[in-house]
Amino acid sequence: RRAGPGGPRRGQLFPWEQRGLPRTESATLGSEGLGDTDTQQSRRRWGGTGYGMGLEPLLEAWSCFRRRKFQRCAELCSQLLERPPVEQEPDSEYSTYQAAWSLKTRALTEMVYVDEIDMDQEGIAEMTLDENAIAQVARPGTSLKLPGTSQGGGPSPAVRPVTQSGRPITGFVRPSTQSGRPSTMEQAIKTSRTALTARPITSASGGYVRLGTASMLTSPDGPFINLSRLNLAKYAQKPNLSKALFEYIFHHENNVKNALDLAALATEHAQFKDWWWKVQIGKCYYRLGLYREAEKQFKSALKDQDMVDTILYLAKVYLRLDQPVTALNLFKQGLDRFPGEVTLLCGIARIHEEMNDVSTAAEYYKDVLKQDNTHVEAIACIGSNHFYSDQPEIALRYYRRLLQMGVYKCQLFNNLGLCCFYAQQYDMTLSSFERALFLAENEEETADVWYNLGHVAVGIGDLNLAYQCFKLAFVNNNDYAEAYNNLAVLEMRKGHIEQARALLQTASSLAPHLYEPHFNFAILSEKVGDLQRSLTAAQKSEAAFPGHVDTQRLLKQLKEHL
């Protein structure tokens, strides 16, 4: 099916989270003038009916663009632009030469386009060098940095595992949930940068730069446009060219400063009445870390033109400023103007999920499914919530629905195997895990499957099989803290105290946000008489999970001894 320039934006399914359960995070420019080319003059100019499909070169290039064959479109436009100047039209309001130039610019942009609404990764530099003043002690339920302050209470880490940032593992991996907020710089650097937990990446700005350098492959002879020699004031006065040029500079070249200069000149030429340019200025400010200036631009754009995308951009600003309540109010106001809008409902559900209010998030995800019953993220999150609420039979129905929709991935069969096991449908358990192993695309996914197989083996009492499965888990992923912890428990059962202590120490250093390794190490140290280490580990366990009753009981006993 052909996707026109005004068609819906297609989302991208991200891989799901560890422990077997999934986690949970083009601009259209006007084509004025392209249809105004005089067909007879073009045929005389280019000689006949063109080549390739029997079409004129410009029309064939436009057809390739509509069918998302961007490389072929750029090649055809290059051939048009290489014609001698004699054969080109004079610089009229919108000539064929300008049409080919604009079309090639858009094609190169689409080849590296990343949706700014979903692209929201916060790196170590952004977390530790953030100069925005935010209250250190937030009121309950008003901060994403302290998810434990949620008024909803949230699920217990004993039932539902949490990520490094303290949030429960949810049903879908999104870019916004990939970045954690470690408490110290030391912890941020030590944390393994994998997709298995909420981890800090090197730098968000570095990711954009790598996108820009990779895009140079589209122009082996050098950049298509030399930005240093551009007269931005001239192009800002031509709306048909300036929008395509801005998208090229912002996405393809990743030159935010030049893009901001062009947008400022263009919005001044439009007498500050064009909402599109205000949104683009806001995007530039957001990329530069000037969140308050971005907020002003997005608010001004909303006054001129009420758009769902602008609401989503403004909500991103509030979330980066750690103001989830303001973002929630903004989404709800948007729902009053756009009733039943799926992206707004999904945004509300994500915020509630990040604030540990999982039950409210599930209700909003159900509202999403009322509007769009094929929404993969909503189905996955509701299924994950049912599984951790001890309802594997209901979760199984949701995951089967994903399978019927064509989501044929390792993570889905992994989850189906777990649901079948806990729902006592043992005939389907091993076959689901076998299919998951077959579909695994990397070593991390293979490690997840072996880890879950180890849990199944523990459940049926085959400890030797469990031992081998956990060994295979960190053969594939040497940073698998949960596998180290569970293997230490099996070593403890065999009486291998030193091996168990070494494994627990490794697990504690790999995942300081998990309470199980700390608690197990405290119990083991208390049994061998090392009360001081036991007290230290028990205090770490209490910090990771304040409501753990066994940890509190152990701390009380240790304080009596000491």
From TrEMBL:
Stretches for region Disordered: 1-47, 145-183
SUPFAM superfamilies the UniProt entry points to: TPR-like (SSF48452)
Tagged with keyword Cytoplasm: no
Cited PROSITE patterns: TPR
Record keywords: TPR repeat
One Gene Ontology term, aspect cellular component: BBSome
Keyword Oxidoreductase: no
One family name in Pfam for this protein: TPR_8
A GO BP annotation: non-motile cilium assembly
TPR repeat start-end pairs: 481-514
Superkingdom classification of source: Eukaryota
Organism of this sequence: Upupa epops (Eurasian hoopoe)
Gene3D superfamilies: Tetratricopeptide repeat domain (1.25.40.10)
This protein's name: TTC8 protein
